[in-house]
Specification:
With about 475 residues, the protein is an all-alpha fold. It has a single domain, classed as Up-down Bundle (Sodium/glucose cotransporter), CATH 1.20.1730.10. It has 18 helices and no strands. α6 packs antiparallel against α7. It is globular. One of its GO terms (cellular component) is plasma membrane. This is Carbon starvation protein CstA. It is found in: Cell membrane. InterPro entries: CstA, CstA_N. Belongs to the peptide transporter carbon starvation (CstA) (TC 2.A.114) family.
């Protein structure tokens, strides 16, 4: 229990101390006019109070990510706490804040345009493709899971439910941001926070917390399975997630002042980290031990069981919200971000409603077709592409900081680490190149993957250093 409480305190201190440091490094100032004021169009560029922007950003990046991911990551025991805390403070929150603020500085540009500006045109094209694929995969993941759950609860045919959710997605994607998202997201954001707080206090005061394993050198995964890089892919949204880089530009177009950026971007990620900690702890302790968790069933079943057991009927209602409403609210913003990314890439104005439908309709047709691919396959590829996008975004942010004479190490260090993660994972994971090694012992394959990851990371660092901006060309904003 003490490790869990200490981890929550560490995240809060991280926001206060390291968040303020990162903000100073970037140089947020109220002297600059934000895109929400300068480019107001009543559709995507709409001024919002920072509290509403925070709740929308929080729900955009969270959904069920910090819940389901944390439940899966809990299988590695208290190592999950370590990854959530360090990943969230030094990687995920930095990633979200820098991409969000770079978007603010560049007229609300999407992450692909930011990457293109600082890593080159080829990187931009790669990022456009990567972003769109990831966003469509997110949309598909968050169409299928709530439709399946609603089918089990109501008996309504899954295809009918898929159709209803897709129609809602289309409406939320093309309407002005303050008409649907701006009205209902803050409500769901508050509910998600209340759910996490209720579960956190419930497991402590109802005695479950005594089963939370403490962090020691001897209690990592009981089955002896490797932690790295799998844990860093399983827990993404609670530590670092490339999906967030696609979402931050939405609120970058709504901030009233730059100084609100730390609260909205860094703060939303820290809040998501706390949600992930709560659910990781609950999953570890509610069923007695890790073995009990393994036998409990799918993540959705675990969430439903814990919610009902800890919070009673209220918990049951919140569980429905968590596993149905929250993924839907992440899915619609995924498709909206895909629309904006494509529009930015081809310079297609999104003021006229017809133009929004021109991009949105083909996107939804592709998404609906992907709904017929097995969920497990979609999820595995989503996990790796998600963290790869985050890695590229961190390198772009590092290049921006270096080019402007700022402390680039706050982005370079997590970028180096994540380069090792995504490289080693794609080599040793089943959905990667593990088949190349045939029947070779998996632990040997993992070691090969880690060595390859370190080499690729080192080469990336050398390339970054080799292309450093000469002192005479350092830009001052």
């Amino acid at each position: 229990m003490f490790s869990f409480i200490g981890a929550v305190i560490a995240l809060i201190v991280g926001y206060v101390v390291y968040g303020a440091f990162v903000d100073r490094v970037f140089g947020s100032t109220d002297a600059k006019v934000t895109p929400a004021k300068r480019m107001a169009d009543g559709v995507d560029y709409v001024e919002m109070d920072w509290k509403k922007a925070f709740l929308i950003q929080f729900l955009n990046i969270a959904g069920t990510g910090p819940i389901f991911g944390a439940v899966a990551g809990a299988m590695w025991g208290p190592a999950a706490f370590i990854w959530i805390v360090f990943g969230c403070i030094f990687a995920g929150s930095v990633h979200d804040f820098l991409i969000g603020m770079l978007s603010v500085r560049q007229d609300g540009a999407s992450v692909s345009e930011i990457v293109g500006k600082y890593l080159g045109e080829n990187a931009r094209k790669l990022m456009v493709a990567f972003s769109i694929v990831l966003l469509v995969l997110v949309g598909v993941v968050f169409v299928k899971s709530p439709a399946d759950i609603l089918h089990n609860l109501t008996g309504i045919p899954t295809m009918v439910l898929l159709g209803i959710i897709i129609i809602y997605y289309l409406i939320a994607t093309v309407l002005p941001i303050d008409q649907v998202i701006g009205r209902i997201y803050p409500i769901f954001g508050v509910c998600l926070l209340i759910m996490a707080v209720g579960i956190g206090f419930g497991i402590i005061f109802q005695g479950y917390a005594v089963n939370i394993p403490e962090i020691t050198f001897h209690n990592f995964h009981p089955a002896g399975k490797s932690i790295f890089p799998y844990l860093c892919i399983s827990i993404a949204c609670g530590a670092i997630s490339g999906f967030h880089a696609t979402q931050s530009p939405m609120m970058a177009r709504c901030l009233r002042t730059e100084r609100e950026g730390r609260r909205v971007f860094y703060g939303a990620m820290i809040s998501e980290g706390i949600v992930a900690l709560v659910w990781a702890a609950a999953a570890m302790c509610y069923f007695g031990n890790i073995e009990g968790l393994a036998a409990a069933g799918s993540a959705a079943v675990v969430v439903d069981t814990i919610s009902r057991g800890v919070l009673g009927p209220v918990g049951g209602a919140l569980a429905i919200l968590g596993v149905v409403a929250c993924p839907i609210t992440s899915g619609d913003t995924a498709f909206r971000s895909a629309r904006l990314t494509i529009a930015d890439a081809i310079g297609y104005k999104q003021g006229p409603v017809k133009n929004r439908f021109v991009i949105a309709v083909p996107l939804f047709a592709i998404g609906l077709a992907l709904c017929f691919i097995p969920f497990a396959i979609i999820w595995r590829y989503f996990g790796w592409s998600n963290q790869t996008l985050a890695t590229i975004a961190l390198w772009a942010a590092a290049k921006y900081l270096e080019k402007h004479g700022k402390n680039f190490w706050i982005a370079v260090i997590p970028a180096l680490f994540m380069t090792v993660v995504v490289t080693s994972y794609i080599i040793c994971a089943p959905e990667g190149f593990a088949w190349v090694f045939g029947d070779m012992d998996i632990h040997v394959v993992e070691q090969i993957g880690i060595v390859a990851g370190i080499i690729v990371s080192a080469l990336s660092g050398l390339l970054f250093w080799k292309t450093k901006t000469p002192a005479a060309e350092i830009e001052v904003e």
